[in-house]
Amino acid sequence: MPGLCQFEVTTCSSEETINEFEALTRDAGRVQQDTLKKILEANADAEYLARFGLDGRTDAESYKSRVPLCVHSDVEPFIQRVAHGDSSSVITRKPITALSLSSGTTQGKPKFLPFNEELIENTLQVFRTSYAFRNREYTTGKGKALQFFYCSKQISTDGGVIATTATTNLYRSPRYREGMKGIRSQGCSPDEVIFGPDFHQSLYCHLLCGLIYSDEVRFVSSTFAHSLVQAFQTLEDVWEDLCADIREGVLSEKVTVPSIRQAVSRILKPNPQLADWIYNKCVRLSCWYGVIPALWPKAKYVYGIMTGSMEPYLKKLRHYAGHLPLISADYGASEGYVGCNIDPTVPPEQVTYAVLPNTGYYEFIPLEKSTGGEMENSASIHYIESGPVGLTEVEVGKIYEVVLTTFAGLYRYRLGDVVKIAGFHNSTPQLQFICRRSLVLSINVDKNTEKDLQFAVEEASKLLEGEKLGIVDFTSCVDTSSDPGRYVIYWELSSGTRDEVLSSCANALDLAFVDEGYNGSRKNKTIAPLELRILNKGTFKEILVHFLGLGGSVSQFKTPRFVNPSNSKVLQILNKNVTQSYFSTAYGL
Ligand code: AMP
């Protein structure tokens, strides 16, 4: 029976979970109607909804005709009232008592979003479902998981409401922790490491605890792939210290936070044999290829969100993972969950997310590309949009923007993500994540998205392959300080290389933006030659630390692929770290 497991997560078997998923998705249209009814009945007299005169109606037609689509700025004044301590029914009948801070990496300003018990249940349902499918292919049995999870600080708003990142809200919830016990293997690290105030120390201790339990680890994971790459890059630098700690049974003095020291010291015992084993494995690796299966021989896969803005990290992650499969984790946001990965055997580049029709009410705004993007890989877009359609009305092969109605008080909320319908599982669609909808690079008639930038960087980075170096991370901005303006692409590289190579990269980047608006403007010189700026090593770490200072968490960090001029702090960090700069000559000088 659909929903049977909802409140009994810990007791559901994988088979029951899969059966529940099949039943829900076979009847996705009806489940959506019921879900909308539940949300509207529960919140009919919340102030945000009551304004639209639904007068008890809970059908999709009335809902869509009366309640307008909205974006974050439309709901912000209501959420601010919640933050200021208004405990009346502002957006939901039951007052919202916790807020999530979403990353807001592009604007450089985190946004508040409502968080409640229903979001926890939805998250558990999505995790339980994808785990059931994963477990069917790669049975992990009893064992541990090496999880690079980090929580951010909790703040109390002036109205006394707890606010922190959504992942922290989840980890801190007893209900979530209880529910997760039945879903995933236990992590290696004690809570004090996950909740530690200094992410460098937490990361070091995650690695250390993972090595202590090396023989028991069944999979390695993080929320986003970025944290996985960051973890193994750190391992390359600190492996000898880790070996020394294990050999002596004494935690490095670098770890100074008392709570972390105490908790880790409890599980760290002198183990020279293990230290030798780790040492020998590490020295035999060639450029750290396959370090994950070498040090965690019983691990069956590597897990984390690997699509969208995480795709650029796949190459490096594959290198560390060796023969182990990479499995992309589910698709969700601080606003609510969207879909889960039910086919773990599919490589991340082709992964799709099946929507669970009882986790919210989903609509999709059809988007049509009007120009540019001739090449299959590019998402160059001037989108023309039409009226939103329901979950079961989407068409395979078409692209849409996702609209959410959640149990936590967001009604017809434009999530800003663009997805493509890859197919259906029973009657629920399977979404392929394309990109964030917001434009990144635009000076005049040109329009390029995160995906276009990613494509250009991939094209240009092919020139680095022969040089045996890689792009650690990248971002961009438009420089309009002179007329005409130009695109600026920032690269941090794993090591230095010849000027000729980087000059060719600047040309390759310039030519790889296939948007007609850009090409035309470059040809008629209304956009100046693209500039490639090379950064000092460690620049992106500095940007990460800056975001953590704003209340972000490593677990939810996404490198901003475009830096707004308003985000002066990040631009400052980038520009003070520029070591070389190359201008494209691709369209002549
Ligand atoms: P936040 O709420 O700050 O954690 O960010 C949520 C956003 O992360 C979503 O709106 C997506 O743009 C992105 N995201 C989350 N999950 C995925 C996924 N599986 N694939 C690609 N992008 C994702």
Automatic annotation (TrEMBL):
Pfam families: GH3 (PF03321), GH3_C (PF23572), GH3_M (PF23571)
Membrane-spanning residues: none
Residue ranges occupied by any GH3 C-terminal domain in the UniProt entry: 451-565
Domain GH3 middle: 353-436
GO cellular component term, pick one: cytoplasm
UniProt keyword list: Ligase
Similarity comment text for this entry: Belongs to the IAA-amido conjugating enzyme family.
Name by which UniProt lists this protein: Uncharacterized protein
Organism per entry: Lolium multiflorum (Italian ryegrass)
